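Escalation from tier 1.

The customer reports that the assembly of two entities below gives different structure tokens on two consecutive runs. Tier 1 could not reproduce it. I'm attaching the input and our single run for tier 2 to review.
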Amino acid sequence: MKLTTLGKLCCTVATVALVTGSGAFADTSGKKIALSNNYAGNSWRQAMLTSWEKVTGEAVTAGVVASADAFTTAENQVTEQAAQIQNLILQGYDAIVINAASPEGLNGAVKEACDAGVVVVSFDGIVTEPCAYRIAVDFHAMGKVQVEYLAGRFPDGGNLLEIRGLAGVFVDDEISGGIHEGVSANDKFNIQGSVHGDWAQDVSQKAVAGILPSLPDIAAVVTQGGDGYGAAQAFKAAGRDTPIIVMGNRHDELTWWKEQKDANGYETMSVSIAPGVSTLAFWVAQQVLDGAEVPQDLSVPFLSITQDTLEESLKTTQAGGVANVEYSLDDSKAVIFGN
Amino acid sequence: MSALSQLTQKPWIWAWLGAVSMWMIITGISGISAGGQVLSAAASFGTFFVIVATGQMFVITLGPGNVDLSIPACMTLSATLAMKFMNGDASLLVPGLLISLTVGLAIGTLNFLLILLLRIPPIIATLSASFLYQSTAIWSNRGLRVKPPEILGDFAVAKVLGLPVLTIVVLVLTLAMAFMLHRTPFGLSVSAIGQNIRAAKLAGIKVEKTRYLTYLMCSVLAAVCGFVLAGFSGGAALNMGEQYLLMSIAVVVIGGTSVAGGYANLTGLWGASLFMFLLVSMLNTVGLSAGFRLIVTGAIIVGVVAISGRKSSV
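Tier 1 run:
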């Protein structure tokens, strides 16, 4: 009797040790982690939440942490999310992972959480409060890499059409800044027009259709994700040759690219952020609770798809969804301690 | 001379003048062939504005406080459920359309029940109920973008003599709506209620029944618009309706329909829809920023409301 209990215990310990890897084990098994999310109204955010559920669900089952609940505010408002964070502090969560509605607006609530001994990890929409951990995406580079790719395709340059995101949002300014920096470094390129597609295919389609008649021949379209398919539809409707459109990892964009590739050898690239970055944030919070030394500022690579990886990416991307990477503990450790 | 002054008295004239001047600026910059192409695009995309704005126009005509803010959520839910059900299968097109219509009928009914039974002002009832619709859309498919049946996509982008088929269909719809507004008891009741609800009641108009039918029609049109838009743009998306909240109201107001209710204008709806599309295209062509575009749009709406408000107080 005693022996079997001991055996079970050993077995549990072994499992936990296996899951948490080397170092301290099961230190976090009693810890509660919450996700405070400001918005869920598009497919990228839905994929982000699905990844969180999947990875943290497995972690809870394995006993790595006690719970990992996700909370999304209804209105995408700073005040609402600040109140939500205060509630999470009162409910006794040990760590709060935040995708923030504003870089500065939540700093008061974040400071309160830190003062109460709660670990705060922000990602995607990061917060500037120094006590929080930040997992930032280099959106600037995401814009620049597109022009660098095009410079390889068009050594003599050419005319570009830029599709931007939602006006007034930090991410839109960053990606566009990167694109413009890339263009000034490769001055054979000209941005002939710039429209806002709000990261939505139908809005992009409309905006591109409106400006297209006024544009000269366009060699390539630089984008921000969620807009490439709409742009392709607008070019088709206008009866124009399809330019090189940089895609944004959405399933419909990759499918369209594959069709073009099979039909006429179309070549392009695709770049966006993997929604599974939420799972990296989860493991960072877990590692901090575990007592690991984690740098305050981390950066996460964006996810690029090339001509060679297209088929493989298309296979692993859920129909109608967006190409994704979910992080295991070991993947996360590589990001945390690798740089 | 008097013909000209009569023309400037028409509430729809300003929207059309705006649309024509935007088109002339674009044509002046980019040439006549570009002007022709942009007009075709304007007809194509303006059609979607007209569909939702027609419903919104009838609602606003019911008088102060009447507005439907659930249009974006209704479009999203209708398109999401219909696309998911059809799953790209053309043989399911008719049942898919029926699902979309049912969503419209259900939402219109629910909106009106909240307004009538719980006595919630329409602006709050439709806004809060739209959370329910949007959440249902999220829950049902979690934002996955399902492709429409090919035949629906083909229909949505088909053109005859450079004019989109969809535009022709909606033009016919507009004519039917104009007949309904000016020649049927229902349309006249809507205007009467908006002009003076007490007088309308005393005249024996069934006010609540008319209001119900109006909200019902608005939701059904929004649902159909979502269905066709999903066909046009390659699938339903959770944020596909976002632009249509402000746009449905802006198009109604700029088109010369009275914000205070009682006076609807379908001619202006088309002018305003073309104007809104051409305005954005013009600003993009000139290279002005999105911030400037939003300022201009806001200023135009405020200006139009201020002018039409002054007229009704005289």
